[in-house]
Amino acid sequence: MKLCSQVIGAISLVLILGSLNVKVVECKVGRGLKNTEYYAINCRKHSAVLTDFGGVGDGKTSNTKAFQSAIRKLGQYASDGGAQLIVPPGKWLTGPFNLTSHFTLFLHKDAVILASQVESEWPQLPVLPSYGRGRDAPGGRFSSLIFGTHLTDVVITGHNGTIDGQGSYWWDKFHKNQLNLTRPYMIEIMYSDQIQISNLTLVNSPSWFVHPIYSSNITIKGLTILAPVDSPNTDGIDPDSCTNTRIEDCYIVSGDDCVAVKSGWDEYGIKFGKPTQHLVIRRLTCISPDSAMIALGSEMSGGIQDVRVEDITAINTQSAVRIKTAVGRGGYVKDIFVKGMTLSTMKYVFWMTGSYGSHPDPAFDPKALPNITGINYRDVVATNVTYSAKLEGISNDPFTGICISNVSIQVSEQKKKLQWNCTDVAGVTSNVTPNTCQLLPEKGKFDCPFPNDKLSIENVQLKTCSIKKVF
Ligand SMILES: *[C@@H]1O[C@H](CO)[C@@H](O)[C@H](O)[C@H]1NC(C)=O
Ligand SMILES: *[C@@H]1O[C@H](CO)[C@@H](O)[C@H](O)[C@H]1NC(C)=O
Ligand SMILES: *[C@@H]1O[C@H](CO)[C@@H](O)[C@H](O)[C@H]1NC(C)=O
Ligand SMILES: *[C@@H]1O[C@H](CO)[C@@H](O)[C@H](O)[C@H]1NC(C)=O
Ligand SMILES: *[C@@H]1O[C@H](CO)[C@@H](O)[C@H](O)[C@H]1NC(C)=O
Ligand SMILES: *[C@@H]1O[C@H](CO)[C@@H](O)[C@H](O)[C@H]1NC(C)=O
Ligand SMILES: *[C@@H]1O[C@H](CO)[C@@H](O)[C@H](O)[C@H]1NC(C)=O
Ligand SMILES: *[C@@H]1O[C@H](CO)[C@@H](O)[C@H](O)[C@H]1NC(C)=O
Ligand SMILES: *[C@@H]1O[C@H](CO)[C@@H](O)[C@H](O)[C@H]1NC(C)=O
């Protein structure tokens, strides 16, 4: 095995590497690729290429061992400046592998990671404590393709290289009701801090694509996420019980919500009690004919608070920023701010549902009512809309503090007569066409609030990192 070091201090390196039985070689910048740059929360001192670990990029040979042994070895540099693993041009078939701290996985623009369809390659993990069961089946769940837990400082990036989940195998099993474990996600990072996932194309995940959970300080940027619009549960990005998350410049076409903000399910989520808070989403484009551009819930039992959404676009999508909850969920959705939505061909512009149903088991607490309050939308232009709004709170538990301002909705030819259907909600509106419902009266001229301060995750600057290596 060859390992390429980018820095001086060769003597100490040889000492460290000696014990790993690897050879340090001179790094030359050779044919095809000059020094390459990318942007990341942290750069790495050490660098290796997947082929150094026996990787074969023919689309047929399994690289599971190559990925696993590469990351295991590179993990030993965590306290010595960290390491990056470069996936060169080629098609790299692999089963799941686990990430390590102070580590970067970098995909060349012509690199494609292909997920194995051999089920025995996929480790089984216990169910998530805030869910109490799997989403597809009550028992355990398959590991995600790229998995990490209890990590700090992890980057998954590239020059728009591709990760292909080859999800059709799993979608078929789902449709045929043959799953006794929950399907894998594409990328899941748990109990971790300082995560970056950027500049990649992700296609055909078996289920959700990107799932940070119980984590903090997460930057998700420049992802193109593509799945057939009829594929089951292929959510794009699901921040779940996470603090300080920034999602920007993403383009998502999928069979489920483009972004789904979550925090655990019914009694399990209430008990676990970890909210998703301090989340900013901007410059998202979404196509999802049967789902939402951004869903808040339905699993929101640990609470969702302080979400800022700006400059988002949906095309041929069922709804825009939707709230999904139910009796039994408990928790809250509070302080949600949406500013600047451009929407075309929508079933609903505004949609809130207090009767979402779907419980983990019959033991949910019927007295656990969600608190939905402080939901603000402003500056919306929508065309070809079927229903302007369906806002359905919960009786004896109304959704309150709704504010909607500066909204222009052009309804479609097939428009429905009742454009604003409001039950068990309370709030105010200003400068909204067509006219709203009695529960959301026009209250003169004002703009709904949007915070002026910045979240700490917005102040994180990406550094320019380099790769000096022949592919
Ligand atoms: C990844 O780590 C989890 C436990 O943290 C383990 O159960 C799983 O088997 C590991 N996966 C691989 C591919 O080694
Ligand atoms: C993404 O990759 C492109 C090159 O393909 C590069 O120009 C751009 O700066 C990269 N962005 C980040 C955030 O790394
Ligand atoms: C990344 O690749 C996808 C798929 O080919 C493409 O649609 C997208 O525009 C690319 N993104 C960038 C920033 O080049
Ligand atoms: C899971 O399902 C497969 C068939 O899809 C079956 O062979 C296997 O025995 C099942 N395992 C359990 C634990 O039920
Ligand atoms: C997240 O980043 C902030 C600001 O950089 C820092 O204060 C905080 O400790 C980090 N969160 C965790 C859980 O480490
Ligand atoms: C308007 O929406 C309908 C579906 O409600 C769709 O069939 C039609 O193509 C859309 N028209 C335009 C001009 O986008
Ligand atoms: C809901 O949350 C708001 C704001 O935090 C609070 O004032 C109110 O008392 C809560 N309502 C209920 C029913 O808990
Ligand atoms: C109203 O919304 C439109 C579209 O987003 C925006 O261009 C305009 O500046 C807004 N008007 C005010 C007064 O904020
Ligand atoms: C309005 O919404 C309520 C509550 O969801 C529903 O029962 C009713 O059928 C809706 N009315 C129309 C005309 O769609």
Describe the structure.
By secondary structure, the chain is mainly β. It has one domain: Pectate Lyase C-like (3 Solenoid). 7% of the residues lie in helices and 46% in strands. It has a 23-stranded mixed β-sheet that branches. The protein has a four-stranded parallel β-sheet with strand order 8-13-16-18. One 2-acetamido-2-deoxy-beta-D-glucopyranose (NAG) binds next to strand 8 and strand 13.
Summed up:
The protein is mainly beta and 471 residues long.
Task: List the topology elements.
Blueprint: E1 2-5, H1 10-18, E2 23-25, E3 36-40, E4 46-49, E5 58-62, H2 64-74, E6 83-87, E7 90-94, E8 97-98, E9 103-107, E10 111-115, E11 124-125, E12 141-142, E13 146-149, E14 152-158, E15 161-164, H3 168-175, E16 187-190, E17 193-203, E18 210-213, E19 216-226, E20 243-253, E21 259-261, H4 266-272, E22 276-287, E23 292-296, E24 304-317, E25 319-324, E26 332-353, E27 371-392, E28 399-411, E29 420-423, E30 425-433, E31 463-467
Parallel strand pairs: 1-2, 4-6, 5-7, 6-9, 7-10, 8-13, 9-14, 10-15, 13-16, 14-17, 15-17, 16-18, 17-19, 19-20, 20-22, 21-23, 22-24, 23-25, 24-26, 25-26, 26-27, 27-28, 27-29, 28-30
Antiparallel strand pairs: 1-4, 3-31, 11-12
The structure holds 2-acetamido-2-deoxy-beta-D-glucopyranose (9 copies).
One 2-acetamido-2-deoxy-beta-D-glucopyranose (NAG) binds next to strand 27.
